[in-house]
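[[Encoded backbone]]
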Amino acid sequence: MSEPIELTKDGQVAIAMFNRPEKYNALGSEDAEYALQVLNTLSADDTIRAIVISGKGRAFCAGGDLKWVLDFPQGLSAAIHQFVGHAHQVVLELCRIRKPVIAAINGIAAGGGFSIALACDFRVMASSAVMLQAYTSAGLSLDMGGTFTLPRIVGLARAMEIVSFDRPISAEQALEWGLITKVVDDEHVLDEAMNMARELADRSIRAFGCVKHLLTDSFDTPFEAHIQREREAMRNCAAHRDGQEGIRAFIEKRKPQFNPR
């Protein structure tokens, strides 16, 4: 049986493809555990400077594969509790990993797939693809960080509309609402995500990781504490070779070389 995620590398960019096309790339509990292992590996791999996530076949990810929950010995509620615990670790790693992560939304992104896409740093969407939160229509609340990321991306009022009415969101609508970064023709979605990843890989990954954390944490940190974190981050960046190269390049009026090959 094939692995639930197909991992390949193109230079300094890793491509993680959900690999259950016959299930529209829905994830079971063991699949979520495998996804976490993949992300942990990529986080620790210094040869990888950017990550692209997409799906095989016609879907990005259709959410959770929950057929097994009805037969779970401890009952439906316990099954959901277990699955969500595993899935949340994946989203936590996506949000905390200090490398840029780009979702190439090639098809339907629903339920957990919707939340995974929101947890990525950037989202490139195929023109025919659709996003759908799908939880509330099934009598469930959003998980996998959806209630955290969604209002931060589109604002509270728009988030309330999305979760209350659960209407399919086209690529054009997603772009207008700020849910995604870019819309491209279907056949170019992975290529565009890879172009973005390569561009980011040539920039300072150290600075990206620091700013990513500062932005994410800014919503819940008092201003005085936050600017102290900014000061510490600036000191840490200046102590790193990227910061030193950037300062020298600025003074010498040249383009910095953050990623010598």
About this structure: Residues 76-96 form the longest helix (21 residues). The longest strand covers residues 5-10. The chain is about 50% helix and 15% strand. The radius of gyration is 19 Å.
